[in-house]
Amino acid sequence: MNKNLEIIKRLYKNYTSKHFKKIILTIFFSILVAGSTSSIAYLLDPAIEKIFINQDAELMYIIPAVIVIAFFSKGMSLYIAKVLMIHVSQELKADVQKDMMKSLISTDTKFIDKIHTGKFISNLTVDVSLLVNLISTALLNIFKDTLSLIGLLSVMFFQNWKLSLIALIMIPLATIVARALGKRMTKATEKTMETSGIFTKRLIEIFKNHKIIKSFQTEKFENERASVDIKDLKDKTIKMDEIFQRNTPIMETLTGFMIAILIFYSGVLIKNGELEINNFFSFLAAMMLAYQPVRALAGLNIAINQGLSASKRVLPIIDRKSDIEDNHNATDLKINEANIKFKDIDFSYETTEKSALKKINLDMEAGKMTALIGLSGAGKSTILNLIPRFYDCNSGDILIDNKSIYDVTLYSLRKNISLVSQDTTLFDDTIKNNIKYANLNATDDEIYQSSKNSFAHDFIKNLPNGYETIVGENGVRLSGGEKQRISIARAILKKSPIILLDEATSALDSETENKIQIAIKELTKDRTTIVIAHRLSTILDAHLIYIIENGKVLEKGNHESLLGKSETYKNFYEKQIQKN
Predict the structure, then answer these.
(1) What percent of the chain has pLDDT over 90?
(2) CB pairs under 8 A, 24+ apart, for 89-95?
(3) pTM higher than 0.85, yes or no?
């Protein structure tokens, strides 16, 4: 209970308080709704007495007119209150989603790797909607329905206090029902959200791997797996909705019993002369109108529980602090030469107990190319990932110009590094914007020059829309070589002193590779470059080559020296010669 109260306080402080004026206006119009609803019930008393019993000709026109005004007032006030809360709810939703996106974008790679994309999408959409429903819809209903109920109860007590006491029994009964259903609803909602996340994950994997599905002819298998997820989601959603709808028959039955008892007791009171017929109809109208806010308030407990449950999934994401962040006394990295040193680096991924790197010592000379070769899984990509601090080492230190990368700001560190990977990542945007992503302030001339240097300009200008061509999801409309050249153009545009090349020519044919080798020379000229390559042509001119095996440095030297002293490198060289 204390935790739920803390969540509500937090939501008010961070999100609701900034919309205080609109909420006050909503409360004002909720008061008008309550007053109009109560006046409608009250007006039945003089309407029956003056029009039907006393047959007052003048009031035959006045009372109906007042009733119309009361209904109009209720309708307009309710409309304005709901519109205000629509604005508040959508602004709240945007604020929460912005905070979630800010947290997810700035968080460390390790956290993103651990959790499937589908869960984050579910958190950003379904959970945020439930959370906002708690803040906005629940807030409106609390004021509107509570005030309406108070007003209608006042009319009921004014007409007959004995009948009103009997009617009041319904409220605690409805509360008990709502509390019991609320607990079940919370559990059902959590299970439904979990299943929804699984289904979203399945969809993402199907869309992402559709070529593999077709290649291995597993359409039937994927359909069957998706059908299981869909059925599970359907069953859990039905169960959740069934629990929510149980409120209806219980409330209807309680209302039926209450009306039956009241009609019976009213008959006794009328017979004894303690109640007039006009008072009874006014009381009955007030009680029937009170049914809606009672029912709404009873169901509100379910919405609150759903919202609180969603908050417990959303707020930890917003609150999460990245494991990789600036040290308290971090300063900006000032590059003088761009020497890079690894000193006794140990590193292991959380997903495995095996060490990826073991006491690694490397020396990458400024303005030179350093190559890393070795079998897959040897630790080469891990070395590259540690330099821009995508991950932090377990022990040891990495120095740039004798300055620890852990003592400089992440922004200044990464600003001085360009990465070109074999897994080329492009946004579903224009070619121009994908290249410009490296420098959002770049001019068109700078973009065109970077493209020319990467041998991308010729194929781009021959596309139907040139640089304005949309590349599709992750560049699906381009070939592997075209995507790679755009990636290199992007790195050239950044003009950073440190270049990381991770199998940068792996997706290229021989003719394109020759062009790209020239582009890479342009990119890496007078820059500190660390390159991972399986192709010999990429590293022949490397100043220093490290052979990495099982997370350790096996041997080092240049091409000529390693040919003479390293059997591992000699085998690598001979295999490359045979391939060519």
Answers:
(1) 21
(2) 89/132, 89/133, 89/135, 89/136, 89/137, 91/19, 92/15, 92/16, 92/19, 92/132, 92/135, 92/136, 93/128, 93/129, 93/132, 95/15
(3) no
Find, among 307, 299, 325, 323, the residue nearest to 10 by Cα: 307
According to CATH, where is 1.20.1560.10 located in the chain? Answer: 2-190+248-319
The CATH number given to 328-416+539-580 is 3.40.50.300
On the 0-12 / 13-18 / 19+ scale of CB atoms within 10 A, 44 is buried
Residues 370 and 542 sit within 8 Å (Cβ to Cβ)? yes
CB 442 within 8 A of CB 485: no
Single-letter code of the amino acid located at 91:
E
Whose tokens are 């003719």? That residue is 511
- Could you tell me where in the chain the CATH 3.40.50.300 domains are found? 328-416+539-580
Spatial contact of 155 and 41, defined as CB atoms under 8 Å apart: yes
Q: Which CATH superfamily is domain 2-190+248-319 in?
A: ABC transporter type 1, transmembrane domain (1.20.1560.10)
DSSP 408: B
- Convert the pLDDT of each residue in 429-486 to its tens digit: 899 999 999 899 999 999 999 998 888 898 999 998 999 999 887 777 888 778 888 8
**For residue 451, what are the CA distances in angstroms to 83, 444, 458, 495, 509?**
51, 11, 9, 13, 19
Contact 451, 457 (CB under 8 A): yes
* Angle in degrees, CA 419, 339, 380, rounded to 5: 45
